[in-house]
Hints:
Blueprint: E1 2-5, E2 17-19, E3 22-24, H1 30-42, E4 46-49, H2 56-59, H3 64-79, H4 117-120, H5 132-151, E5 156-159, H6 181-193, E6 197-201, H7 208-213, E7 220-227, E8 253-258, H8 264-280, E9 285-290, H9 307-318, E10 324-328, H10 334-352
Parallel strand pairs: 1-4, 1-5, 5-10, 6-7, 6-9, 7-8, 9-10
Antiparallel strand pairs: 2-3
Amino acid sequence: MPVVWGDRCRLHDPGGEIWVGVRSPGTEVAARAAAILAALVEAEATIVDAERHPDAALYAVHDAALLGFLESAWDEWTAAGLDRDPGQDRVVPYVFAHAALTSGRPAAVPTAVWAKPGYFAYDTMTLVGPGTWEAARAAVDTALTAADLVAAGAPCAYACCRPPGHHAGRACYGGSCYLNNSAVAAAALAHRLGGPVAVLDVDAHHGNGTQEIFYERGDVLVGSVHVDPGAGWFPHFLGFADETGAGVGAGANKNLPLPPGAGDEPWLDAVKELAAWAGAEQATSLVVPLGVDAAAGDPESPLSVTAEGFRHAGRILGELRLPTVLVQEGGYDLEALGPLVREVLLGVEEGAA
């Protein structure tokens, strides 16, 4: 299958993460994409350059205010001198627009540059630096180029997106995600091929942003297998089995949380259930937010899926024989990352054969 990549995805350098107030080295680094590409080039994959797309595709899933903030955040931060005094070299929120502050009414967008990030961000881990917007925008173009290939007749295409996106909501960012690449691809396929589009997320963490973007839409099915947020895992507040959609989207959302330590058998059973659900709902195309951080040994997840399990999951998804876009999400073991992605892609090709 074609592998879509854009060099500008390398430009984002998170400069670390701030977790429980402590700054530590970042895990969502450019070396992740390099590791994936190296493994796929070794497997003789065809690399396709990402093409620039109009901003209209972004507005289909994101609020204009979020897009404007992310595009200007670093320039405003440095213009205000915050990188020099107090010496904070990344855009970091310090106060948040919690809904309870205004009894649920919309909060005012702060005028202070140092307060504005807390209107849009929902964690302190997701830092903005000098190349963040350019890389996030390139990641969207990567996903959209893969969607273009599939809409034009390719059976499947893989988008090597970085930074990832499935934790970014319509009007907020977090979880190392800024723009929701998978959601943008799904909306594009719904527009071009008709619905319903099935978004089946196999990342170790719940794709809360994707869920909320489509929660009241019936033309995009969102399913996810992930570690149980009730067991203490990100995104903590969302990802439970009773979240099934609302309005015209009632029944179009499906969460299958797993306990920490779950390995191939329960994880693959959940993947099979999601695939069967997509088939029963007569999905016309498929988007797979492809995180491989459910792997045993990944530092960001307590799940224990093997390489063989990922290959099998790929076959299950390929057997749906739907036009398929796979969009890279998590996976943080740099040694295992590339080979695991390769296993999934090979499995998809085997299943679709």
